[in-house]
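Archive entry: two folds, one per protein. Generate the first.
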Amino acid sequence: MKFASAPAWALIGLAALPIAAGHAQTTPPAAQTIAKEPDIMGTWEIYPDPFAGENNTFVELPVPNGGPKLKEPYASQWKAKRAERDAKLKAGTPLVDPSTQCAPEGMPMIMGAIFPLQILQTPGQVTVLAEFLTQTRRILFNKPLPPIDEVSPSYYGYSVGKWEGDTLVVTTRGVREDTQFFEIPHSKQMEIQERIRLTAPDMLEDRITITDPLMLAEPYSFTYGYKRNDGYEIVEYICDRVDPLFKVNADGTVSMKTEGDPPEAAKPATQPGKK
């Protein structure tokens, strides 16, 4: 919910109204038109849903737009790593990843909405709440964007936003170098720009462009789409490294748990089913 208050200049201006024939001027100053922010507050699910029809199976999401154009040697290293991951997945022994280890997704992975997102609009801030791992991302308004060297590295970086008509433009800096999107390497110079807007009353898109002068040969762009589902109630999702379905093996691969696993390995975790 958003609130509007009378601007301070309007109140101060009343004291300066001219007096004519002993009576205060009663004609109010012309009303100023204040643009209303688009309402993106609500619960959003990724659309189209990449998990549709899947039930307790391993799903490796495709890298958006086939991945970035990296400089060498980063391009060859990343392709080799992705090839190994694909081979392990086909063999039924997928490699461990940050989410398996209960690490926050960070930016821009959080916007991939593996589980639904909730967006809150409050004065001076847009907050993104991800059900997956109970993550919180803050987008600040009326704030200068600090130089990269002055931003303390974090999972989600430092995000500053502004409205340009119907589009929320967000710039993010300071994402930790060990927080990688589909294992894509990046330097501390990486910057992420988003253009978030409603494409229909219940449809939202986030156009993302990543730049990194040290590792990317050119900007990397892709778009996430979302469908509103305000009937869905976001619940707490705490990851304690013990998953009721999956286990991490000694060789770093992941497999489904079976009835023969020790009871302590199947300790329940608070992990609701998707949707």
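Generate the second and append.
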Amino acid sequence: MDYGTIGFIIFIVALVILVYWKKKNLQIQGVFVMLKTKKLRTLIKRAVKKYPFFWKTYFTTGVIVGFLAMVFGIFFLLNNVINLLQGFGAPTLSLVFPGPTSSFSAHPGVLLVPIWYWLIAIVVLIFPHELSHGLALALNKLKIKSLGVFLLLFIPGAFVEPDEKQLKKVNKFKKLQVYAAGSFSNIVTGIILVLIFHLFLFTAFSYEGVDYGYARDMVNRSEIIETNNLSEGLLEIKTSQDTYLATKSILDRQVNNTNLLLFDDWPAARNNLSGSIKKIDNIEITSFDKMTKVLSNYKPGDNIKIETSKGINNITLANRKGKAFLGITYPQGYTYILNMIPSETVVDFVFPQSYKNYELQALPESVGNFLYMLIFFIYNVCFGVAIINILPIKPLDGGLITETLTNKRFANAISLIFFAILVFIIAGPYLL
């Protein structure tokens, strides 16, 4: 039995003991076991009274950011539906659960996380989210009936209970401030964690190189007329019009797909370029933008030396529309972000490239790797939950925002549509 399983068992036992200890104070509402309190209401009101201008500006900004996040979330969902219908069945959304595991375990639609990562993430996610709802209520002089925590099976959560009758009577903008507060605070928390993450990287890690993906395309399985084995585990796949490349492991992961995601036959894939790119002809590469600019100085047919974290490669550049072409793209999985954000520098900052541990006496490698994964996991969860929560799906905050701006009938209809889309994206890799 490894320490991941032991940690999970301890967590379950601790929950059972806590529920038994507090059983007289617990309330059962449907599938939820709830513990309510009124103790924090005074502190929340004092915080708002002390800095009213700050909180008014903060929650007004939250409304604007909430709308932008909703647009991004809708685009993200629709983009994933298109990918799934085209036969690209790779999971892009997952339900995150704690598991009896000592490492992250990804499955289509589900991500199992070691219990210690998950518990810390839950606290960092929930506390700012619910506190912000409470502060927004207090700012608009709306009653907070209670605050508390709940259990859904073994999944903990928290809540702020407003006076629903009073909330329905206030103007729309005050409602929007309350509903957008949670997701906005998760985004702010995520941004703060990104800054902490990079401060940690700059002090504990050294930059290893720039990540990339091979240029790729979708190919219908029926179009394939020939498959040949190449050196170093590569497969050459031919259709009547083009030649593509893949590895056996990539094809195995798409064994049930009608449309296959294959690499275009360009020099990077043909030479099996691997590892993070550190230098091109002794020019240090520090970002994907810089790599693109360096490559633009070459002509088709030029031979270049590429130093990666796995070795040195001598590659001859191909001709693409009269320009030298290596055949690499921004790392797979970031494409949909680049469609929304014009600056790749922003994406580089949120999704960092490869880093390598310094040998620091004060920071053992195991500790450094744990902190790396912990902070990286938590800020991704913060951004992910913020986007999902702001979608127009009731009873999520985005659904309540939609109902505030339209009407109950329209909000219910649009909520069912987007809930179905969300379920399809999570279950799609299994179905397709």
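Annotation attached to the second fold: The longest strand covers residues 144-152. The chain has two domains: 3-206+366-431, 213-350.
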